Amino acid sequence: MENQRINDFINIAIQSGGWMVLDKVYLKNRLLSLIGEWSEPENTSLEGLPSSTDLLKEMLIVAENNNKVDATNQVAVEILSAEIMELLTPPPSVVNALFSQHYDHSEKEATDYFHLLAINNGYIDGTSLVSKEVDILETPWQVKQKSDVRHKEMICEHCFDSEGYGEMYQRIKRIIRMNLKGESWGFSYAELPLVEEHCEFFPEAHEPITFSRQTMERMLRLLDIYPHYFVGYDAVKNTGKEHGSLMGGAVLVPLFQAEEDYVFDIPGFVTVSASLVEWPISVIRLKTTSKKNLINSIEYLMLRWQQYSYPSLDIMANDESGQNQHSLIPIFRKEGEMLIADLLLVDKGESFERSQAYRDLLLDENSIADRLGIVTITNDIELTNETELLIKESIEEQGVFKKSPEGIKAFIRFVDTL
Ligand SMILES: [Zn+2]
Prior knowledge:
Blueprint: H1 4-15, H2 24-35, H3 52-65, H4 74-85, H5 92-105, H6 107-120, E1 131-136, E2 139-146, E3 176-180, E4 183-189, E5 199-203, H7 213-225, E6 229-232, H8 235-238, E7 246-250, E8 260-264, E9 273-277, E10 283-288, H9 291-306, E11 326-335, E12 338-347, H10 356-361, E13 374-378, H11 385-398, H12 405-416
Parallel strand pairs: 2-13
Antiparallel strand pairs: 1-2, 3-4, 4-5, 5-7, 6-7, 6-11, 8-9, 9-10, 10-12, 11-12
Helix pairs in contact: 1-2, 5-6
Bound molecules: zinc ion.
Zinc ion is lined by residues 156, 158-159, 206, 243.
């Protein structure tokens, strides 16, 4: 009798675009060579069309029963999982060709295809244990839990050389190639997503990315290619990184829902509308249809912010050694023709630092995702009231201008004296 599970798996493989109906027997033979004989489904409770991750779980049991893998050896399990899931992963050339075919219809259709591929083959770990809403200064924040148990093979994760590398999950990683005005760039999804459709954009060249005019121009070019995503410069993540990257994702992060609460003018930029937003962390929002005006106004704001001090609130432009402490984290997105920049104000002073206890909670302590409204903590920590309190306090601590009467007044004074 035919095993329906094997057929289900083969159908997902064919849908991924890498195989044709003629390959069915071949795929079945490859699969059985990895897991051994499979006469009937282990888990009869799976109804309808099971997902590829459900199927993988069953196949690992079959493989264990057939002595094809030692289930107590986590690395061996990951290697076998990657070998199985590789059957659901077309070669890079095919993925890129299909992506551009979909892109001809719409940008979203293309990213939907690529995202689903990375979910189906297990490259993206889509599991979140808890997703809870926590109010921070009357703003709803999402708290998620996730595990990070994958073993990594040492290779620069942003070099194109990492595509298909090694024996574990990088072998099922795929990179979409892009041409950014003559520069070769790559796009892939994050294996442990912190935001919806969390992705990364990176140059092919192994080089750092710093906050500069050129970086902002590249970010806006990426927004032209992916107008339904946001593109952010994740300053924390790029610190000390030899191969830089830009962060992207679906425009669903809570920060973008935050209302504008104080509108002001930036002298010399009449076409740019500027406002503060109702957000626990200090954010300036700019809107304009002109890329050039947007970048010019951000550069102007950056300059003014780098010169600004307010000692009674511990806001100091320079530290004791004269090093500048102030920078901005720009997050760009588009609404129709309108370009929107949310600028997170950063002061590197100790008073605004993330505490060690908070860092220990985070799945990725080097990401700015928490400042966008989504905190992802590791799943070995229980989400108790105490943990929630630590998250609340830590988010508030990262705000440069506090939401106290004095802090609000100082923030307004800063933007009114630009
Ligand atoms: Zn690299």
